## 1
Amino acid sequence: MASLSKKNDQPFDISDYHFTETPKSVKILFKVLTYLFLGMCCLVVILPLLVVLIGAFKTHDEYITTNVFTLPAVPQFQNFVTAFINGNVMKGLLNTAIILVISCFGTIITGTMTAFVLQRFKMLFTRAVKGVFLFAALLPNIAMQVTVFQIVSKLGLYNTIWAPCILYIGTDIVSIYIFIQFLDNISVSLDESAILDGASYFRVYWSIILPMLRPAIATVLVIKFVSIYNDFYTANLYMPSDDLSVVSTALYKFIGPYSAQWEVIFAGIIICIIPSLVIFLFLQKFIYSNLVAGSVKE
Amino acid sequence: MAAETVKPKRTFIQWIRGYTGQKYLTTVLFLLIPLVLLILFTLIPAVNMGIFSFQKRDQLGVSVEWVGFDNYVRLFTDSSYLSTFANSIYYLIGSFVQQGLALFIATLLCSKIKLANVFKGVLFFPYMMNGVAVSLIFRRFFQKGDGITNTEGTLNSILMMFGADPVKWLSNPDIVNFCLVFASIWRYIGFDIVMYIGAIQSISPDVYEAADLDGANAWQRFWYIIFPSIRPIVALQLILAIKGAVSVFEIPYIITGGRNGTSTFVIKTIETAFQYQKIGLASAMAIVLLAIILIITAIQKAFFRERK
Amino acid sequence: MKLRKLMAGFLAASTALSLAACSTNTTSTSTSTGDSGAANNSTDSSAADNNSTDNSTAGDSTASGDKLTLTVLTHRTDRKDDGTLAEMTKSFEEANNCTVVYQAFTDYATDVPTMMNTTEYGDVLMIPDTVKLEDLSNFFEPLGTYDEMNEKYMWADKKMYDNTVYGIAHLGTIAGGICYNKRIWKEAGITELPKTPEDFIADLKAIEANTDAIPYYTNFANADWTLVQWASLVNSASGSKSYETDILTSQRDLFVPGDAYYEVYKLMFDIFKDPTLHEEDPATSDWEGCKKAINDGKIATMVMGSWAVSQFKEAGENPDDIGYMPAPFSVNGKQYAESTSDYCLGINKNRSDEIKELGKKYITWFVEESGFAQKEGSVCALRGSEMPDYLTDFADCEFFVTDTAPDGLVGVWDAINNDSEVGTWQGDAANFKIQIAEAAFAGEGEDKFESIIADANAKWNATRDANEDLKAYLAAN
């Protein structure tokens, strides 16, 4: 938010502008219109989802004969049971959670360390490394997975839970950028005073920088959650074993020539959404404030 | 800001020497793992991609042939590859609309409005959803029912409530791209709204109070106070929108598979690589895309340097 | 503050989850992978460790304890998820004191070739068609000579190079067929199945006029693979055992009026251009729902391989209504149907001899004893096996198996097909099949069809004329 606060520092004198008084009736009209408009926007977001929710509780016959908004005569839970069992969702949730924890932890440690060095030590080497990281962030990874797969396999990580973890940690350049941009706003005077007190650089990183980076860490956690939770490709290719299934692969199982019926697919979608929804409801405010912190700096 | 980090003070020369050594040590230790990972999982694959672009090779990497610039020549002479960039225009326009709308909604939500958090929450939620789920939801959303195997989709059901005739949304080449852009806006706008809200909220409340005292209306408030303050972010967003538009892929790929004139450059690249087993040509396409993104980035950098 | 709470929450949750993971893993692996899994899990290690040890053993297929583990890669996500494969394999596991682990891939044809850049592509797998025949020996274990294998199995030449066979069909299909609902066709007053495209369209029109069913369902929303089903009609329509070879050696256009390629896609164009003959909005067609719809008689006809018959039968209460008819093309008044192999099972050549032996046993068992092909209503590769019962409509139809391409022409068709991006077996967005369908739906006339065909011919011919292997072959013969 550096750029913003700088803007605000500029003298801004509201009396330079000549505003005209708005009549009260017009104000009320505006208010009504505002609510109407926002309500409409929310409706646009909700309606496609509502159809999924309703559809998931229908029988197949109801699904193909009744209007999308018609509620089922008797809510069917069978679709959820089918999706839950066929998708092996329980195991998927556990594996997803493990991967999330490891990857987030790893990203935060390596990301903050990298950012600390790259942002605080301005040497030719760190500048060059920073440039390389920027370049890497722009690479389209379309034709790269053959090589990536070879490397993962050579490291003996194929079909282990470490394969996605290390890929999520090792290819996350955006997080490093969020940390670097955040560090731009943390004054070096803190580091300097600690160094004057005889602290080592590691100590500066650990006791000063890391705690200061908390909002950025939160941002990275949120972005990581969304991307890892929804990523199908990595888990599908690198851990085909049943014991290593994740939530997003469960949903993909319902697609393709051998796919299931819509009601079951909808139930699968709902099951996949629920964990996101729960986390979202609990952490709503937190997510907003921290996403903002991250993206503004991107 | 840069040089301040360890500003040497003459009285501490010896002390600094110790820290210089430590600085190098810390640099090496802290960067060791990230750099190894970067080299392994990004740089080596990227270099390989560059090498592949001069080869004729299939997915299995057997019987590799060096073909020089043949892949690039084909890319720039056969119009069927670069022409797929045309659809990026839709997404470019779409993202401008998206930014405008997001800014507008963000402004509304920052005025004194009840339930602002509920509105915000609802609008943001699609951003957290799985791409496949989004594709399935929108296939149902735009469905034209036949009354035999299925009923009308969500959008047509709503239209019919108002007495309108159902429409074949995804079959009509004139509107299908707009439908996809709509899905894209649906999915990503919440993120932008939340971002703009954050930016607007960081404007000092004093400024608003002054404006309120002067009796500024909503539009005046937006145009004279909010917009000037968040202009840098808006500019950044628009440039990111261009980048996003040239590399758009997921929404058309999962909803229409690029059919009915909805293909994009990245979809074409994937098809070239995996349907036709031309990893070399696909690599060249990826390199071209990279070059375009680099150019946009350079413009972005130049633009922001100028502003500063 | 908030962050600390969150972190605490995360940690608490993760601890709980990893504990839970330990316990569930123990139970689930002990059932699915037998003794080895249970042994690993009895040690008090973390959940992540459990997973890695479990699965590295599964991946490498090294012996754990005295039992071997065989990893089999399959494209049948459905049969793995519904437990059919595991259930079926129990007898094999018992007889050979081993554990078979199935890994299913939704996007098999893309994912497995990527894996094949390493040695990690399972022990036994469906050989992806990406592998050129001349490259088979780089990846797969020879199963025997052609003469040996051909004696026992059909389609032994499908994955053969230099007289060595590397794969046996896990099942075969009758390619030149069309799925239909018998009851509806009967209700429409059709007494005799169509033998020509004109008859076929007339029948669809009769269904449109006399029943409530949708005469033909395009499944265009999944066109990337559903339209490719039409490609499997071509060889049957030609009635020739050497159709592709003849096209190559005669150096003629791919699409010639009166000839199979042209006529098959002309039929597609003619059906698709008449909005009364197919579903109203093909762009949002519904593969998931159409299976039950054809079973219920709401859809009358679909061009789908015989692999789909069992799915359509299972989808509702009327399995007996699902029929499979020969493609409506005749050569000199006679109909033909190509019987062709589906994916072939091969053995990863990078494995230990022990695993390779077990793999061979597995393939033999899968093809000869598992009954998978029969259960799927398909043709079993073992010679002398019974044909599926739904082939009654093929009584007057001559079955044939396409000849192996002559030496010097092996792989040439695929090379021209890929280089030119004509894509006879592909369903990419720019493919001629997709273009034909889109033109038909848009109500374009014959001239548009002709121009798409001409364009594909031009691309094909240009690439063919530049193909060195073909030049060499033609010069030599």
## 2
Amino acid sequence: MLGRTAASLYWMSRYIERAENIARLTEVGYRISLTPDIGFGHREDWKSTLIAAGCYEDYLARHKEINSEKVKHFLLFDRDNPSSVRSCLETARNNARAVRTALTREMWEALNSTYIDFTSVKQADLGSGKLPEFLDWVRQRSALFRGSMLGTLLRDEGFHFSQLGAFIERADNTARILDVKYYVLLPTNETVGGDIDAFQWETILRSVSAHRSYRHVYKDRYRPWNVAEFLILRPEMPRSFCFCYGWIERSLEGLSDMVGRPMPSLLEARTILNDLKNGHMDAIFQSGLHEFLNDFLKRNNQVSAHIAEDYHFL
Amino acid sequence: MTMNKQAGAAQKGSKPTMAAFFDEMRYADGTIRPAYAKIAEWMNQQSKGGMARKQEEADAIFRRLGITFAVYGDTASNERLIPFDLIPRVVAAQEWRFLERGIEQRVRALNLFLYDIYHRQEIIRAGRVPADLIIGNEAFLPQMMGFDPPGKVYSHIVGTDIVRTGENAFFVLEDNLRTPSGVSYMLEDREAMMHLFPELFAAHRVAPVERYPEMLRQTLESVAPPACKSDPTLAVLTPGIFNSAYFEHSFLADQMGVELVQGSDLFIEDGALYMRTVTGKERIDVLYRRVDDNFLDPLAFHPNSTLGVPGLFDLYRAGGVTIVNAPGTGIADDKAVYAYVPDIIEFYTGEKPILSNVPTYRCSMADECGYVLNHLAELVVKEVHGSGGYGMLIGPHSTKAQLAEFEKKIKANPSNYIAQPTLSLSTCPSNVGAGSAPRHVDLRPFVLVGDKIRITPGGLTRVALQKGSLVVNSSQSGGTKDTWVLED
């Protein structure tokens, strides 16, 4: 497989995953904005969404104030925002076009029709409560793409690169969501474990479709401690770091087998996975969750850079 | 016999019908030709709403597959769909046999011509083609002199454009020996038809086109370079996703199961061409390039090109890789050389041409130029190096101002133009908003030349969907339709 092809598959998957995550974050922002304002002057729900999406600064560079219509436009439709759902779908599709031969027809059709349908939607069409339906649709289309891939793609190197893109991106997103929660969402004069807090944790879990599975695993109300553990260390939670790194390791092993020796990216991913497997929430909270998350984001980026190097992405 | 007369002889011998348009479905008295019998019956059974639904379904299929093309100078809607016409064109078995013989003869002769032009130039010595037409031609590549491409094949993939004007009147309009496109539409149009109207196929014996990718692969493998000692590795070279034919490039690579590469993926090392892969590098033996000659190798041709590979041409000449089609084939499908193709066929095969040329006036010849300038309003004038329907004058459909403008252009640079009579292209029934109506068509069969000549039955029918229009180019709002060669 060409290095350029591998790179395109990797980025295609990353951008589809990102489109889905931006849609999930937008939904969280929307839900929070619907909750009654209980004072304290903290209406920063959209700000936190922008931060979690990693584009707060980009937004401020273009808009003076945080206004829900503007934020929605910025997150969903803005061509100038490289992480808007539209831009993500477009970038994913351009990458897919460049490697049509490495995709199955079903994968291509899933992505291409999503893009085509998306471009016919205008923000004006999303008034009066139609936004959640639209965000659902984005998630469904991402699921359709993933399903076509899992159902039709040969389990060769192309599959590994697609998986890597998806899980590196997902790990990155989960880390950002958690980080935002801990340091931005919680109003300073509200106590950890209070009502707003519980509501906010719930929306976080909702954004990763895990508010019910949390109950199954913990049989308890939402506690920050558990939520963080759920999203970081639990191998059965499909958006947790541990789960993502399990798949990243598996794909990097597959690729290393092909090369015939363990590549640096595999060694690095393995170390991260082992740290997660042996990790404890006590230790993580003690050294600071924010620091832990920042460190994880950095390591995750490093793995991404090593993959590009090891497999001759251009 | 002088060359001038030779070209003239072709004109007189087979004058295209100028009067009424030839209807491929109906005889002049309105009765249906046998080949169209079941199609006509089927058309009668279709309701207007039913056809409209099928048309929507077809458009959705093509859009979902991403079978789009980019139109140059049309930035707003960068990717457009080529309109697909639901009603198939039918070619009777005996008509196809005739075309097939004619195409094979022509393609064989043109490859022999290319070999000769890049070696001893016997045809020039014999006075059958003027030296300055070749040597002074932009499409002639002196770099190719004295080189023997594997199998002595220059143009491996050919798209011969054919128009029909009467019962037995077929004319070759263009030879397209460089990097002809459109074959993916031929294949996808068939796919779509089989999906939409399986019952129609059950009622006919339609010659299959699906083997084209496999035949392309065999053709490419048969021209592996001398340095290749095992199974040759093939690759398709594309300029990238913004090229108008990108869909086709990726489609063909996919159908053959080979890599689709760009210039940046390739490098030359120790006398071999390699592509950068995730595990290092892999050698390429045969490169089916869809990049123009000029951009193939910045060291040999256009120095600023980033689409090709530095050193590729030297490697090619040294036998380390085969470039398909060979560089320099443009000298044989140049519009000025076109007028000499009947001579070329006779010179190399000793046979009379089976398929006729469209009479062609070369503005480089003073007397023919004079005729052109006096009859501009009746003629189609083309730039010698133009393609895709750009830079063309259709006399009968032009305004006085356009005619005057072309007159000026021709006078300024006569050798840049040729002219042909406005052909009365045949018509086929087409699905138009209000039912079916006759529309003008041409035909591009696809020919593969390697260890042998392989012609896929049928080809791409392009149709001018606008009422009365004679321009079938996709860049000028033409459409395509499935082409059925019926088996006996």
